Amino acid sequence: MAQLAGVRRQFVNAAMAAPFLEREEERQLAVQWRQAQDERALHRLAHAHMRLVIALASRFRHYGLPLADLIQEGHVGLLEAAARFEPERDVRFSTYATWWIRASMQDYILRNWSIVRGGTSSAQKALFFNLRRLRAKLSRDGRSTADGTLFATIASAIGVSTADVELMDTRLSGPDVSLNAPLASHDTSDPSERVEFLVDNQPLPDELVSDSIDSLRRMDWLRDALTVLSERELRILRERRLADETATLEALGVTLGISKERVRQIENRALEKLRRALNERHPEEIAAVA
Predict the structure, then answer these.
(1) Contacts with 281 (C-beta within 8 Å, 6 or more apart), sequence order
(2) Matching CATH number, 205-289, of 3.30.565.10, 1.10.10.10, 2.40.50.140, 3.40.30.10
(3) Which CATH architecture has domain 7-112?
(4) What is the pLDDT of residues 180-205, one digit of tens each?
(5) Model's pTM, two decimal places?
């Protein structure tokens, strides 16, 4: 372990001691790599900017991930920047590479910080990496969660909902906990796990299946009972009771050429005929449902 730490220290010291590149020298190296795929030019360009990678990696150390891994991911971003850099543009390579290095490190953090994937959208990603900073800044200004406006202010600044801020704040406040971990880690005599105390208010699978079968059976009963109705009774009942957008008594009266009171009478008569048909054909089941 000590030997590994020594190697890392030597690597960091070598990177920090690498000479800076003048603008023209940097441009020439970028041209050689882009046009001739000169790997020696790429190596010099990357080596001269490793101090930038290390500096950016140090900003993400508080996420609890190894600095060496962050530097490695940043180096991947640096090489990606070198592959995409256009030397003919009047931009320093370090300015261009900073975005790629930071993006590579942030993607690594989001993949490995928690077993629960987060930051899947650009707004959520911004929330993840800016919540602590904004909260600390507002706290210094005398704002706290007690006044109920701190989360709302952060949500407005980042462009997410207050609920998203509250959820992210909860996630950042503690580490992941396994559902199979003992409920009381200090008490070895109690084997209970956290998952045993989770409450699911949804119906059990057998209840869902039973309800589905019962619904299909009742639909068959209804279709059978509808055969006792006349054509006009069936039409009124479908328009008034079975359609997604039910018709009014007045509208049906105009369509059928009768008064709305007559439509109401026919509807009531049709419902009564349905009840009698269902009771006669399925007396025990209807009584159980009622």
Answers:
(1) 221, 224, 225
(2) 1.10.10.10
(3) Up-down Bundle (1.20)
(4) 777 766 666 667 777 777 777 888 88
(5) 0.54
